[in-house]
Amino acid sequence: MKRALAIIMPLLFGIPLSLAAAPASFAYRSSEGRTLLLPYDTIQSMVPIDLGGDGTSELLLGSPPGFVGQVFLVRLDGSIINSWLAYDAKFKGGVNVAAGDLDNDGIPEIITAPAGGGGPHVRIFDGYGKPKISPGFFAGPNNYQDGVSIAIQRLGDRKPPLITAITNTPAAKTFSAFTAQGEIVKSYPFAGAADQANGQYIVLTALENQKSGTITLPKTTQSIERPGKAIIIDLSDQTLSYYEDGYRLGTSLTSTGKPGYATPVGEHAINAKSKLAYSKTYGLYMPYWMSFIGGRYGIHELPYWPNGYREGEDHLGTAVSHGCVRLGIGPAQTLFEWAELGTPVIVQP
Predict the structure, then answer these.
(1) How buried is 268 (Cβ within 10 angstroms: 0-12 exposed, 13-18 middle, 19+ buried)?
(2) Contact 216/199 with Cβ under 8 angstroms?
(3) What is the pTM of this model?
(4) Of 80, 46, 64, which is closest to residue 206 (Cα–Cα)?
(5) CA 114, CA 187: separation in Å to the nearest integer?
(6) By CB neighbour count within 10 A (0-12 exposed, 13-18 middle, 19+ buried), where does 306 fall?
(7) Which long-range contacts (CB under 8 A, 24 or more apart) does 238-246 make?
(8) For 121-167, how does the pLDDT look when each residue is reduced to its tens digit (9 = 90+)?
(9) Are 71 and 49 in contact (CB under 8 A)?
(10) Alpha-carbon distance 222 to 318, whole Å?
(11) What share of the chain is helix, strand, coil (3-state, %, to 5)?
């Protein structure tokens, strides 16, 4: 995913070629006067981990929604140590991370779970990104896609460490505890406090030179240098991101114009809005329509025909439209309600 108008240049020197497409670095300024250059403009999930046992923590970071599902290990100055895909390269639902010594060898393991948009697949890795202990397990039904919050906990003195997971079932939140092999130890309805990461700040207790200290970081940082609202459509990876005063508010997969019907590159602006538009040319309905080049090109939800048949979600991420920018059910309405007439629409190759 490109970052148009980025205010921080990518730190590519010294990074392996396999990571050359990694996101740019973004500056986070902590309340303690520290500046960290991190690979994402939003902190989805972050925990300290001392992999080297040297009394200085590394930071374990999971990608936020809208980005490829990666895990990053970074030093306290933000420099990257290692990175790997936690899930399939097409997964962009965000990654929650946790760390703890599950096998009592003195070296913490790295645990991941989807933050949303994917099955509740919990995985275990070593610091090199290699699967460890087990191939992973599901913390809920295979079709569950509402995200999993995870941690490593001991549920009593002299008890072995367990992987705990919170899922948001239709009836209520559910707390479950699993062994590293995925065997369930207990499960019950849960009415705990909201996840700390849902607030405006991340508070970490990390070791530095054998001393414990607190690091307080904002959850988001500026990723483009532009005031007001803006929509950026990236044709190369078929994503749409929207920003306010330089802060990215969200990113979604799109389907833009196929070859011969390419969505025009350049800076445009929303010039009309309609909750439901109809195309006489193609005989279909386009919910949450927002035109940005005359009335020919627009952003809209997946279209449907008079018989009720709707364009499939599986087309998102692939350029198959006749020039418009299609969004999925949910993201289209959110963007429609947020954007105003005159909001800039930047289409980049």
Answers:
(1) buried
(2) no
(3) 0.80
(4) 46
(5) 19
(6) exposed
(7) 238/316, 238/317, 238/318, 238/319, 239/1, 239/66, 240/299, 240/325, 240/327, 240/331, 240/335, 241/1, 241/66, 242/335, 242/338, 242/339, 246/7, 246/222
(8) 999 999 999 999 988 999 988 889 889 999 999 888 788 999 999 99
(9) no
(10) 28
(11) 5, 45, 50
Residue 60 is which amino acid? Answer: L
Q: Is the pLDDT of residue 277 over 80?
A: yes
If pLDDT is split at 50, 70 and 90, which confidence band does 294 have? confident
Q: What is the DSSP letter of 314?
A: G
For residue 195, what are its two tokens? 């996840």
Give the integer Cα–Cα distance in Å for 24 and 28. 13
Hey, how many other C-beta atoms are within 10 angstroms of the C-beta on 148?
Answer: 24
Selection from 148, 128, 152, 126 nearest residue 138 by Cα: 148
Give 157-198 pLDDT, tens digit per residue. 788 999 999 998 766 789 999 999 999 999 988 765 444 445
Q: What tokens appear for 201 in the block?
A: 């700040």
In b/e form, how buried is each residue of 224-247, taking b as 16+ CB within 10 angstroms?
Answer: bebeebbbbbbbeebbbbbbeebe
| Residue 254 CB coordination number (10 Å) | 27
Written as six digits, the tokens of 55 are 């009394």
What is the rounded distance in angstroms from the CA atom of residue 244 to the CA atom of residue 242? 7
Residues, the chain: 349
CA–CA separation, 15 and 37 (whole Å):
14
Going by C-alpha positions, the residue among 25, 30, 16, 70 that lies closest to residue 204 is 30
Q: What's the pLDDT score for residue 323?
A: 93
Q: What does the alpha-carbon distance between residue 37 and residue 57 come to, in Å, rounded to a whole number? A: 16
